[in-house]
Amino acid sequence: MSGSITLTKDEEMMIAVMKKFKTQEYHDFNEDLFLPAQDFISVKENISSSSLFTFLRAMPKGASLHTHILAATSAEYIVKELSYMKNLYMYTWNGKLKLKFMNTSDAEKCAEDFGLCELLSDKRQVQSAKVFDKWLLDQLMITNTPEINSKSKKWTKLSGIFTTLYDMLTYRPAFEKYLKQTLQELVDDNIIYVELRGTFMELYELDGVKYDAMKSLQIMSDVISTFTTTHNETFIGARYIFAPYRKLTDEDFQDSLKLLREAHRKFPHLIAGFDLVGHEDAGGTLRQRVELLQRVHKDIKFYFHAGETNWHGTESDQNLLDAILLGSSRIGHGLSLAKHPELMRLVRDRKIAVEVAPVSNQVLGYVNDLRAHPAVLYARFGIPLVICNDDPTAFGNTGLTFDFYEAYMALTQVDEGPEFLKAAALNSIGHSSMNQFQKRKAYEMFEERWKIWSHGMAAIVSFFGKLSN
Ligand SMILES: [Zn+2]
How far is CA 285 from CA 219, 222, 243, 315, in A? Predict the structure, then answer.
């Protein structure tokens, strides 16, 4: 990419700094200690304390295009802020922890139905807040424990986290705070736009009032609009990809498509498109839904997860072909794409971006050493890539800096500057669902901030230059 671009003096100096610190990391963390080759959860603190991480945190990163709304914000915020809101109860449902805001009579009913329904504030009195909060944090994140030692167990824990959080986050006051915090964490990480994905949730109040999917989308739209207006110097907006579970019954799937049509008609500024989510290797293929999906209105775009598998020739692998044939605008993960040169060519020629989520792919056990990630091949082949965080609540990779770090260290050549990251950031704007006007504004905002960041990095060169004189 750098070959066709004229670099400013600041950029040349910035690239020199980035390369210097990158080389230093290769030196400090040799073959055995190289951080992207180790489990992210074990080395997260080492990554976040590196100088390179600090520089990347300040770097403009464009848009975040693949984040699941029920795992979009740091688990620490959920524990420290939301779980301290009044009237939050916990109980066990089908062996899974559930958190829900309830009034007293609903809590009594819950205790009758599920045996035990306890206020979190009471639990903190009994156990001490510190002990309880640590326990709760562990429930919301994938941790390195012997019980969670396989891909399917990690997926079970991940889907369990969504179950735990759903009723907590759909309490209207908690949802508004949560969504605002999600956007704030992105702004703090120098991200200017986001596409979240999830189901059409139904929010509720403590007094029994329930909002249907459309009213709940209105609440979501209002939060985004207020946040975007008050952060118009640094943030362009957020849109929503409707993404129901891939293994819905036929009837529920058809109902979902009806809701999608209605939501797209009522909230065209908010609804970006459609996806199906859940562990691909566990079933629920695009092929099973192909006839219905072909009938979806052409204005509704697809952003399918596809090929999030290490298998070759399975139904999950074949999702890739169906995603491409259905005209998916981007592909989530696409790990098995490397096994299909002909599909790689199609993806490149049709300019379909692949959403690469290094931390997610490693934590869930698809790619242990990120130098072996197939995105290296996609980049060399000319497929547009965007870097994504997937489920930051569960993985601890809030914002995009952790994924940018992993991508920079593991997916580029050792002597490469951050041009790869800039290309990914620009791709995230170009391959987003923003309209042309918004994209133009996003490019301008990005370039301006890139200039400021490069200038700051160049100042570091001058500072160290003077020190060494
Ligand atoms: Zn995902």
Answer: 32, 34, 14, 7
Specify the DSSP element, H or E, that contains 199. none
Q: State which residues of the chain have pLDDT below 70.
A: 1-5, 465-469
What pLDDT, on a 0 to 100 scale, did the predictor assign at position 314? Answer: 92
Encoded amino acid at 308, one letter: E
Question: Hey, is 167 helix, strand or coil?
Answer: helix
Name residues whose C-beta falls within 8 Å of residue 323's C-beta, 6 or more positions apart in sequence: 286, 302, 304, 306, 307, 331
d(CA 31, CA 37) in angstroms, rounded, equals 9
User: Cα(40) to centroid of ligand 1, in Å?
Assistant: 17
Q: Is 251 exposed, middle or buried (0-12, 13-18, 19+ CB in 10 A)?
A: exposed
* Residue 3: per-residue pLDDT: 42
Q: What pLDDT digit, counting tens, does each position of 270-308 carry? A: 999 999 998 888 888 999 999 999 999 889 999 999 999
- What positions carry a catalytic annotation? 308, 333
Amino acid 469: pLDDT = 52
Distance 7 CA to ligand 1 centre (A): 35
What global pTM score does this model have? Answer: 0.95
CA distance to 76, 149, 239, 269, 436, per residue, from 218 (Å) = 27, 41, 12, 11, 24
| DSSP-derived secondary structure letter, 7 | P
- CA 390 to ligand 1 centroid distance, Å: 5
* Contact partners, residue 312, CB within 8 Å, separation at least 6: 336, 339
